[in-house]
Amino acid sequence: MVMKKLINHPDRVVDELIEGYVLANPKLVRKHPRVNAILRVDAPVADKVGVVIGGGAGHEPLFLEYVGPGMADASAHGQIFAAPAPELILEAIRAVHAGKGVMLLYNNYAGDCLNFDMAQDMAREEGIEVETVRVNEEIASAPKGSEADRRGTTADHVVIKMAGAASESKLPLAEVVRITQKAVDGSRSLGVGLSSCTTPATGREIFEIGDDEMEIGMGLHGEPGVERMKMLPADATVERMIPRLVEDLPYQSGDEIVLVINGYGATTRMEMFIVNRKIRSMLAERKIGVYATDIGEYCTSQEMKGLSITFVRMDDELKRYFDMPCQCPFYVRY
């Protein structure tokens, strides 16, 4: 595949991405004056726990577009598919700290864990109270029983929503962490990849897959999945995926979930709505209720084709925080 992207120079992609993004949303966000971190425009907010998210670029709208009232207070932005540097994360922590502590929320990848942990240690040395929650809901990346080894993917925006609402409610740090971890623990995701993407740095595909193939469980960066096969119709694909998701937690009759159908960057809304009808039919058969449905591109991988399905189990407490208003450039709830 020949890379066709409207960029200037690969080395300037992230800088120019952030510049353009801030120019489009000046009433909600601002750029940190020294590093590639996005801050809500009124940060730090008095009497509130700061919530810092972050990770590599290339997954837009994740992470930079989930900063705003009721969501995150800051996003530390790395290069394409690369973790942000510890010093950058530390600057984001400092920028949102208002005396009530800071929670770091990010996906469970080795580079992110290393760099966020280093930033956390440096912030603690400065006297800032910092705690961490890692998103690790992707079931294909490690077997049941090894959940701590799983990577985080497309539960992100729902988990960030819970964290932001708890923080906006002026809860103490320990409670913000508890509620956020509860949302993570009730989340499971599984994706299907249909094609690779190209990265600006190399202009090459990041993995190979046949034109007539698909792979269930493939990661956002081309990590191996659990089953590669010839292309299947939408309903047959969903039939391969839903039992794996339901059985992993497991989700049971009477449960309610937030359902997320996430496109990887080159998947049409037509396809996602077709997939949704089959998912809903299979959930109805199992008497699993759907409290809310989010369909769209929430975590992409450049122009990769495919989608992921995410379940987030709800209870009365999580429903309350999910329903609270939020306003960031990509995700709004009233």
Q: Topology, pairings included?
A:
Blueprint: H1 13-24, E1 29-31, E2 37-40, E3 50-57, E4 74-80, H2 86-96, E5 102-107, H3 110-125, E6 130-135, H4 156-168, H5 173-185, E7 187-193, E8 213-216, E9 227-230, H6 234-248, E10 256-263, H7 269-285, E11 289-296, E12 306-314, H8 316-323, E13 326-327, E14 332-333
Parallel strand pairs: 3-4, 3-5, 5-6, 10-11
Antiparallel strand pairs: 1-2, 2-4, 7-8, 7-12, 8-9, 10-12, 13-14
Helix pairs in contact: 2-3, 4-5, 6-7
Structural commentary:
It is a single chain. The protein is α/β, with parallel strands linked by helices and 334 residues long. It has 2 domains: 13-186, Dihydroxyacetone kinase, domain 1 (Rossmann fold, 3-Layer(aba) Sandwich); 187-321, Dihydroxyacetone kinase, domain 2 (Hypothetical Protein Tm841, Chain: A,domain 3). Helices cover 31% and strands 23% of the residues. It has 8 helices and 14 strands. The strands form 3 sheets. A 6-stranded mixed β-sheet has the order 1-2-4-3-5-6, sandwiched between helices. Helix 3 (110-125) links the parallel strand 5 and strand 6 (130-135). Helix 2 (86-96) packs across helix 3 and helix 6 packs across helix 7 (269-285). The longest helix has 17 residues, at 269-285. It is globular, with a radius of gyration of 19 Å. The chain starts with 12 loop residues before the first helix and ends with a strand.
